[in-house]
Structure formats: structure tokens, C-alpha cells
Design goal:
- There is one protein chain.
- The protein is an alpha+beta fold.
- Among the domains are: 6-221, no CATH class; 244-494, Beta-galactosidase, Chain A, domain 5, CATH 2.70.98.60; 812-934, Immunoglobulin-like, CATH 2.60.40.
- 20% of the residues lie in helices and 25% in strands.
- Strands 6, 7, 8, 9, 13, 14, 16, 17, 21 and 22 form a ten-stranded antiparallel sheet that branches. Strands 31-30-29-28-25-24-23-33-32 form a nine-stranded parallel sheet. Strands 5, 12, 15, 18, 19 and 20 form a six-stranded antiparallel sheet that branches.
- Strand 29, helix 12 and strand 30 (716-718) form a beta-alpha-beta unit.
- Helix 2 packs antiparallel against helix 3, helix 10 (626-642) runs parallel beside helix 11 (672-690) and helix 14 (762-770) packs parallel to helix 15 (785-807).
């Protein structure tokens, strides 16, 4: 029988008897359960399986079977295993047996055996009470129709949401005739929702080949450290990195959590308890559904809500955690007990435990300033690996993304399972992976606990950032397609969806600080003749800004440079048919500024200390202060309201040091890093609300804050201050693992390159910038008429190809690797709309010449095997190698076609299975093709 899983996509299923949750993505399943001890046990995350498969058998991986008779000796709860083995287990007899054993063997029990047995007995009694309560007031849920011998799925009318059961919350079930009759424990009336299907009672334990006696023969070898958990506390036997750490007023850090209940909501459950607005993904009722699993520390009453959202059209889940410290907790005597403050020292947004896997690889994005987000691969072995930032931003050095796979490195681009994590946060983060002595792996993702201590007084709550979990069974390529589609549809502001950003010319590398009205206008006049659509005025326009030492914070135009004000310049630019954009750095202040002289305590450092770091001659404004946020809002509001400004580049050119909030109480200094980031988000949210027509591009010394949090407020991020094409190939290639091509800020710059002094052709610089937002960092006044004409051809071609490149599917066809001697990149974007003429755009770049060696044929991907395509080479090379001397010589403009002529017609089968021959000759050489749809069918073969 072939099961069609598609009806379950985006649905949340709950089976009450085993307390199992199933979250179905488009082709994936994420499953966990609340065991009888109240722990959340992770079961499975991977490719979809039918809902009638009983996943409780996965719990057996936590124990081993022994045929030596004897009592159970595990200090963990074992009722889940007992329930699985036999529904007819005699609880009372077992309790008496354990009680006798405890009384007789207290002296000989090692490692607190008596206490462990007593704890197990208590849990069995609680389970018995729960089963008794479920059996009371039984009602038939629905009729079982097995006349056709096939699974019968029936949905029940939806109640109002949220829904909640007194014991286990809303439930859903699935009926299958071969699994036997409905179990009595499911007969209790429950709340159902449309799209939340019921699961039938699981088969009796005898179908597993086990009888009641087998229960007594199970001897688990060790404790919680081996169990796959969904959310892990500290100090109760799990020695892996915990999901959270709390410190109570008495100094205790023990906080075991117990399952309390759950709620199911249609659509995306929005954040309510974040201290300030945090970025989060969107999702309507037709797109996704949300699950809230409620946990509590029964002793202290501290509450944890684990929030999950599963998307229907993608294999993606978001996770976050809300911690509540109730105002009061009722004791057993029903009297109110006074609450005490609690401190959070660690709170991960997501924890996932993986069973032992062979050949596990960890993929991260790391680098440095001007060299960001290189794809790194390393084998995970026993021990702990951490990728983190402590700099106040997500940083140049590391990115809040990681993925694991068991596929060998030479294959994992297109093959095998990948599990990926992307944190929607722009501040200090941590991605930690630990492989234990058992071979199991834990991944934690969240705010970096090294710089985080959050006080939680009674009645208060804290909500973590969101973490995106993506599963792919088609390697990194499938993972990237999911991230790209997810962020374009549900994260980047919707008003920018399917738009093409204007081709802009930024004044920075053309003029640096030496800007004024006449110079900018002169540059704009040249730009208007070669396809540029926007002029962006970069640094140097405000205060008394002649270099990097002054005026940050004083966001008023320099009247020496702009005597008629910025509004006059904007009007002149608009008169040329060009749009206008501007650069700001709102988070910083120079000591040489009016703002600092007036408010010296508005900086992030301990006022009164003489020593401090002035990175790039500037200090960081304290965005934890409301007056700072309001000052920045007022200045940006005035700037954008006074002129027709349609683009804002938000920069941040240094990291945070001496982080101390002068307006924050001493015991809350551990909150400063997070409160700072919340303040930045607040200003960005204001700009989005007040000026929706302004396209914002964020920047942090280049690519130092390229993350999903920033994408919530802007459609694009400057990828790196390094614009050299050889460097940019690796930077943009790595960035594409998690972030859409439409979000990667990439420009053509001058040669020799300002950062590396390397040379490259204008054609190659165009092709690299094409796979991004595309713009110019050139002084067009210095280009020759020939170069300006060539540039005009490139800008025109960009406008033609941009919809396919920015909004199509992106494929990494080639990349240099330590496992290969191929020193080339190849990128491809395909258009999914069959009505469009352009089906794909392909570019190939040679990074290092190997004389006498040939590149392999380039196999394309993402095409229709049965369709014909017109393969057209664009901007061919005009040089060739002299066969007599080996020298590269110009051909006088005569094109050298890769395919022998400008275009050929080939089938998708040939292009993907055979490939395209590519001949590149020197470092930085490149070639590009456009595939047009050929409407004639492929001729039938004889």
C-alpha cells in the first residue's frame, strides 16, 4: 500500500493514550511525546511516515533487554515501556512487589536504589490515577467504518480556538481497521479542530512480540543522559548542555519540568510576551498551525510554554519558548503562597536530540571582517562544538545557522538527509552541538548564555527569539530551497515580494567623505546615461563630517556641502529620472559630536571609567534607554519626511564593548545585550510602519549582521565590505545556504579592488553582482566611453534577468572543495513560471587556472527532462589562446562561443545528464548562459 501523506501537511496530530504529538510539514514529520513521568521525549524528525505507525517502539532505544529475572533498577520512569509492553499490567501487584523489595533490600541497594524504586512507584500510582480519570464518563468519539479494509479518516467539526483538555489538551486521532478497536482511554470526550485528525489507539503490546513478563526483564543501563529529550533541564541526571538554566531566590538551579497540557491554534501564534517586539515569521490559518506545550516546575510553579509552528507548503518548523513566573501559586491547601523572583541564566529557543548516526558532519558559516560566511564542514565526534557570537551582533565571525548531515561531503549538496537550524536573532547567539559517549547528538540554538541573565519577578514573562528548523531529504540544495522560500514568503516584508530593487550607484567608493551637492549631481548625470536608477548618498553628508572621527549622532545635513539642504539635492536627482537613497549609522556616536557633548551618559560604557574602546573612533549608543530610541526615531523621522528618500542604508561599523547600561539597575546588567537588540528592532519597526515605501538595506561593517532577524525589517543586507569578485564568490556562495539571493547586497566595484588590489574583468564583476541585489560602487566620471557602453549593456541585461535570478530557485552547481581539484564556482537560477520566456540563468567562474587541465562538463539542474531549451550564451569572451605560443591574445572583438555558436537547442535531459562544455582560461574568467523555453517538443527517439 502506498500512503499519501499530503493530506496531513501542515497539521498537528495528537494521540492521547501515548501523549504523542506529530507535526507534519510538506514531506516531513516531527514527533515527540509526553512520557508518563511528564518528560517530553523526542521521537523522530525526518521524512513523513503514516500516522498509524506506532512510534512508541523508539523508546526501546533507551533500554536494553536482559533475560535475567529481577526487579527493575532504573531511577527514570519506566511506565512508558511497561504500557507499551502490556496494557494489562497489574499495577497494584507491581507496586506491592516494589514495596517489598524496597523494605527488604534497602541496605544492599546501591546508588539510592530505594529512592529510585519509590519514585517509580509514585509515578505508577499517578499514572493509575490518570487512567482512572480518563475512564470516567467515557463517550464514543465516532463510528469505526472498516468496510473497505482501508484506513478511514473522519474529521470532527472545529470548536473555537484555543482548545485545551483538562488532562492532555486537545486531541486528534486516526482510524485504521487493522489496528483493532478504539481503546477505552480514547473514549473520553475531547476537543477536535478542523485539520487536527484523531489517531486510533495503538495495537496491543503483543503485536511487538512482547508479553507482560518482558517488562520485568528490561534493565535500562543508565539514566537521563541517554534519553532523547525535547527540552532538557539542568542537574537531574542529564549531563548534556541544558535547554535552560534558572536560579531561584534560594540559589537553587534545580527545575525539572513536567508536562501540564497543550493548546492548538490555527495559523501562526504571534509573540505576546517578548520584552519589546522581536522579529518573527508570519503565517495565516491557511499556511500553518501552532502548538503550545505547557510545562511547569511543580515545586515552584515556574511555567514554560514550548511554542511550535509547522508550515503546510514547506518542511519547516519554528520553535520558541515562553517562561512565566506566576504572581501566585496555590498550595495543596488552596491558600496563596508568596512568589519569589527568578533569574534566567540560559534559555534556548530550540533543543533537538538525535539518535546515534554514523559519519555525522556539521556545517556552519564562519569567517571574518571582509571574509564572511564561508561554508565550513567538520566531522562531529564525541565532545562539544560551539558556534557563537559575543560581539553584540550576529557577527562577521559566525552566523546563527548550522546544519548536520550524515552524507559524505562530496555528495551532500544534492544527496541525503539534512537537519538545519537558523536563529531569527541579530544579537549574541549560540549554536552548540554535543556528541555524547553513546554517540547521540544534541543541538541547542538560542541567545548566548554567556552574556545573558534575565530577572523574572512574579507576574512577569520572557519570550525567546524564534528558531527555524528545516529538514531536507535532498541535501543542502533542498534545505536552501526551503529557507529561501520560507524567508521570502513569511519573513521579508511582504510589500517587497517579487519586486526587483532599483539599480543603485553608491557614492562611497567613488567619493568617500568628499561629497557635496555639485559632485553628487555630476555623478548622477553620468549614471543616468548608463541604466542606473538610484543615487545613494553615503557617508560624509551630515554634521561636520570630514572623516571618521566626528559627527556621528548629529543627523542634520552639512550646510557647507549642501547649502540648499538635502531636499534641493533630492529634487535635482529626481529631475534626472533617478531615485534617491541615503546612508546613516544610527547606533553610533563620535566623541566629537554635539550629541555626545550634550548626553555623555547615553553610551554603552560605565560612566566614570577613563578607559574605554573607541572602535573606528566611535562609541555605541545605549539602545536600552527609551530616550535614545526616541532621539534616533525623531532624527530619522525628520530626515525621511523632509525629502523624497526611497532607500535607507542602515550601517553599524563596530561591535559592542564595555557593555554597561547606566540607566539599568546593577542586578539587571545581564539583560543589556538583549535589551540593546530589542531597542534596535524597535527603531526599525517604526521605520517600516511610518515609511513603508522606503527600502531598507542593513549593514554592519559589511556583513557583520546578516541574519534572519534583520530580514524581518528589510528585504536586503549588505553582504560584505569586500567587493573583490574572488572573495565575493565564496561569501555569496556560503550566504546562499540559508538566505535568499534577493537578500544579498552585491555591487560592481572599481579595479584594482579597494580591499584586495586584485584585477578582474567588468564582465565577471557584473556576473557576480547579478546573483544579488546588484548595484555600483564606481566613479563613473572616470570610466572611458567604451567602459560606459559595456556597463550600459550589463545594466540592461540585469533588468531582463533579475526576475529569474532574484525570485527563482537557486542551484549551487560547482564550488571549490578540499575534496576536488576543480577551482570554479557555477550558479544557476530557474524560473518556475512556465509562461515566462526565460527558464534559467547560469554563470560559471574560474578562480584558479590549472594550465593543461580541462573543466568537466557542467550538468544543469532543475529543468524539465522532456522540454527543449534554447541555450544562449551572453557576453562571450573575446580572447583566445595562441596555439603556437600558449599566450592569451585578444580577438579584436570576435566572440569565442563556448558551444561553437551563440545558441543551440537542447533537451532538458541532455543539459542535466550530459551537461554543457565550459572552457575558461585565466583566473577570474567567466561565462554565462540564458535558457529560453523552446515551445516545440523534444523529437521522439527511434
Amino acid at each position: 500500500m502506498v500512503y499519501d501523506i499530503s493530506p496531513y501537511a501542515g497539521k498537528i496530530l495528537f494521540e492521547e493514550r501515548s501523549s504523542t504529538f506529530r507535526l507534519y510539514g510538506r514531506n516531513s514529520l516531527y514527533a515527540f511525546r509526553a512520557d508518563e513521568g511528564g518528560n517530553l521525549e523526542h521521537l523522530y524528525w525526518g521524512k513523513s511516515i503514516p500516522p498509524q505507525d506506532d512510534l512508541r517502539y523508539l523508546s526501546f532505544s533507551n533500554v536494553q533487554l536482559s533475560f535475567d529475572p529481577g526487579p527493575l533498577t532504573y531511577f527514570e520512569d519506566i511506565t512508558a515501556i511497561q504500557d507499551l509492553v502490556s496494557e494489562q499490567l497489574d499495577h497494584e501487584n507491581l507496586l506491592r512487589e516494589w514495596d517489598n523489595a524496597r523494605k527488604q533490600n534497602v541496605a544492599t541497594c546501591m546508588f539510592g536504589e530505594a529512592a529510585r524504586r519509590e519514585n517509580a512507584a509514585w509515578r505508577l500510582m499517578k499514572m493509575q490515577e490518570l487512567k482512572t480519570s480518563r475512564a470516567e464518563g467515557e463517550e464514543e468519539l465516532r463510528e469505526i467504518d472498516d468496510s473497505d479494509g482501508e484506513p478511514n479518516i473522519q474529521e470532527v467539526p472545529a470548536p473555537n480556538y484555543p482548545i485545551k483538555s483538562p488532562h492532555l489538551g486537545p486531541m486528534a486521532s486516526f482510524t485504521s481497521p487493522h489496528l483493532g478497536p478504539l481503546h477505552p482511554s480514547l473514549a473520553k470526550a475531547g476537543a477536535f479542530g478542523e485539520g487536527f485528525l484523531p489517531l486510533n489507539a495503538y495495537p496491543p503490546a503483543e503485536e511487538f512480540g512482547l508479553g507482560p513478563q518482558a517488562t520485568e526483564d528490561m534493565i535500562p543501563p543508565v539514566g537521563r543522559n541517554t534519553k532523547l529529550l525535547e527540552f532538557a533541564d539542568l542537574g537531574t541526571g542529564d549531563y548534556r548542555p541544558p535547554s535552560f538554566c534558572v536560579v531561584y531566590e534560594d540559589g537553587s538551579t534545580i527545575c525539572p519540568l513536567t508536562y501540564k497540557g497543550h493548546e492548538i491554534h490555527r495559523g501562526k501564534l504571534p509573540m505576546k510576551f517578548a520584552k519589546g517586539k522581536l522579529p518573527e515569521l508570519r503565517g495565516g490559518e491557511e499556511d500553518c498551525n501552532s502548538l503550545v506545550v505547557q510545562m511547569e516546575d511543580r515545586l515552584t510553579g515556574l511555567e514554560f510554554d514550548l511554542v511550535y509552528t509547522v508550515y503546510k507548503d514547506l518542511d519547516a518548523i519554528t520553535r520558541r519558548v515562553i517562561v512565566h513566573n506566576p504572581k501566585e501559586k496555590k498550595s495543596n491547601g488552596n491558600s496563596n503562597k508568596p512568589r519569589t523572583p527568578t533569574r534566567l541564566d540560559k534559555l534556548m529557543s530550540a533543543t533537538v536530540d538525535f539518535h546515534t548516526m554514523s559519519g555525522l558532519n556539521l556545517i556552519t558559516l564562519s569567517g571574518s571582517w571582509a571574509n564572511e560566511r564561508h561554508q565550513r564542514v567538520q566531522s562531529l565526534v564525541q565532545g562539544r562544538f560551539v558556534s557563537e557570537s559575543l560581539r553584540g551582533t550576529s557577527s562577521h565571525q559566525h552566523n546563527p545557522f548550522c546544519a548536520i548531515t550524515t552524507t559524505p561531503e562530496e555528495l551532500f549538496e544534492t544527496h541525503g538527509d539534512v537537519w538545519a537550524f537558523s536563529l531569527v536573532y541579530s544579537g549574541n547567539f549560540i549554536m552548540e552541538a554535543e556528541v555524547t559517549e553513546t554517540g547521540r547528538t544534541r543541538i541547542n540554538a538560542g541567545i548566548n548564555p554567556s552574556t545573558f541573565k534575565w530577572h523574572l519577578p512574579p507576574g512577569d514573562s520572557f519570550e525567546s527569539p524564534e528558531c527555524v528548523l528545516v529538514y531536507s531529504d535532498s541535501g543542502l540544495e533542498g534545505m536552501s530551497h526551503t529557507f529561501h522560500a520560507l524567508y521570502k514568503k513569511y519573513q521579508i516584508p511582504q510589500r517587497w515580494a517579487n519586486t526587483v530593487p532599483p539599480i543603485l550607484l553608491n557614492t562611497w567608493e567613488a567619493m568617500y567623505f568628499d561629497v557635496n551637492h555639485s559632485k553628487v549631481l555630476e555623478l548622477a548625470k553620468v549614471a543616468a546615461t548608463c541604466g542606473v536608477e538610484m543615487i545613494v548618498l553615503d557617508d560624509g553628508w551630515f554634521g561636520e563630517r570630514e572623516d571618521a572621527t566626528s559627527s556621528l549622532g548629529d543627523w542634520d545635513e552639512d550646510r557647507r556641502k549642501f547649502p540648499d539642504g538635502l531636499s534641493a539635492l533630492v529634487q535635482d536627482i529626481n529631475a534626472l529620472g533617478l531615485k534617491f537613497g541615503i546612508w546613516v549609522e544610527p547606533e553610533m556616536v563620535n566623541v566629537k559630536s554635539k550629541l555626545y557633548r550634550k548626553y555623555p551618559t547615553w553610551c554603552l560604557n560605565q560612566h566614570g571609567r577613563n578607559s574605554r574602546c573607541e572602535g573606528r573612533n566611535q562609541l555605541v549608543l545605549d539602545f536600552t534607554r527609551e530616550e535614545v530610541c526616541q532621539y534616533v526615531i525623531s532624527k530619522l523621522n525628520a530626515l525621511l519626511s523632509a525629502s523624497n528618500i526611497e532607500y535607507l542604508k542602515w550601517d553599524m561599523n563596530r561591535h559592542l564593548t564595555e557593555v554597561y547600561g547606566n540607566a539599568i539597575m546593577p542586578e539587571k546588567q545581564g539583560e543589556v545585550f538583549h535589551r540593546y537588540m530589542v531597542g534596535v528592532y524597535k527603531v526599525l519597526a517604526f521605520l517600516n510602519d511610518k515609511f513603508p515605501h522606503v527600502r531598507i538595506e542593513t549593514c554592519s561593517g559589511g556583513g557583520g549582521r546578516f541574519d534572519a532577524g534583520m530580514l524581518h525589517y528589510c528585504p536586503q543586507i549588505w553582504a560584505s565590505d569586500n567587493t573583490d569578485v574572488f572573495s565575493r564568490m565564496a561569501i555569496q556562495h556560503g550566504t546562499s545556504l540559508a538566505y535568499p539571493i534577493s537578500s544579498i547586497g552585491s555591487h560592481i566595484t572599481a579595479v584594482p579592488n579597494h580591499q584586495t588590489q586584485r584585477l578582474s574583468t567588468l564582465k565577471t564583476r557584473f556576473l557576480v553582482a547579478l546573483f544579488g541585489t546588484f548595484g555600483l560602487e564606481l566613479d563613473l566620471r572616470r570610466l572611458s566611453p567604451v567602459d560606459l557602453n559595456e556597463l550600459s549593456q550589463y545594466t540592461a541585461k540585469y533588468k531582463e534577468l533579475a526576475p529569474t535570478v532574484l525570485h527563482g530557485k537557486f542551484y549551487r552547481l560547482w564550488a571549490p572543495s578540499r575534496l576536488s581539484d576543480r577551482h570554479a564556482y557555477a550558479w544557476m537560477c530557474t524560473c518556475e513560471n512556465e509562461q515566462e520566456d526565460i527558464a534559467a540563468v547560469v554563470a560559471v567562474f574560474l578562480t584558479k587556472t590549472e594550465p593543461g587541465r580541462y573543466l568537466p562538463r557542467l550538468r544543469l539542474r532543475g529543468l524539465d527532462l522532456a522540454s527543449n531549451y534554447v541555450v544562449e550564451e551572453i557576453f562571450p569572451n573575446t580572447s583566445m589562446r595562441n596555439r603556437n605560443t600558449g599566450q592569451l591574445e585578444m580577438t579584436g572583438g570576435m566572440p569565442q562561443w563556448q558551444l561553437g555558436k551563440q545558441s543551440i537547442v537542447m533537451s532538458g535531459a541532455a543539459l542535466m545528464n550530459v551537461g554543457v562544455p565550459v572552457r575558461l582560461s585565466y583566473d577570474g574568467d567567466s561565462s554565462a548562459f540564458v535558457l529560453h523555453r523552446h515551445r516545440n517538443p523534444v523529437p521522439a527517439s527511434n
